[in-house]
């Protein structure tokens, strides 16, 4: 899980995840939508893949990158747990003031 949060620390990687949220894309497709080079996008995708947030699928001569449902679900569950506790504490505070 810590590698997922390390990967999410970079704004370009977060932007890549946002783009992949709309569906699978090749390196070239992602790079055309970001202000960074294609080799930089490839490095970011490799790190996201190592963190378990992205998977790649070969399609002919291209590799299509998609969000890895299990990796994203783990991060989402972590935030739901943390946020859920914070909301509960806030409600108690608000009701007691």
Short characterization:
With 97 residues, this protein is α+β, with helices and mostly antiparallel strands. Helix content is 64%, strand content 12%.
How would you describe this protein?
With 97 residues, the chain is an alpha+beta fold. It has one domain: Winged helix-like DNA-binding domain superfamily/Winged helix DNA-binding domain (Arc Repressor Mutant, subunit A, Orthogonal Bundle). 64% of the residues lie in helices and 12% in strands. The protein contains five helices and two strands; from the N terminus they run H-H-H-H-E-E-H. The protein has helices at 2-8, 11-20, 27-31, 38-50, 69-95; strands spanning 54-59, 62-67. A two-stranded antiparallel sheet has the order 1-2. Helix 1 (2-8) runs antiparallel to helix 4 (38-50). The longest helix has 27 residues, at 69-95. The N and C termini lie far apart (37 Å).
């Amino acid at each position: 899980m810590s590698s997922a949060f390390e990967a999410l620390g970079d704004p370009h990687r977060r932007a890549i995840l946002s783009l992949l949220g709309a569906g699978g894309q090749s390196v070239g497709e992602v790079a055309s939508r970001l202000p960074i080079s294609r080799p930089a996008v490839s490095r970011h995708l490799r790190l996201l893949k190592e963190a378990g947030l992205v998977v790649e699928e070969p399609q002919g001569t291209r590799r299509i990158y998609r969000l890895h449902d299990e990796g994203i679900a783990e991060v989402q569950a972590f935030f739901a747990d943390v946020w859920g506790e914070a909301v509960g504490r806030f409600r108690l505070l608000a009701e007691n003031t």
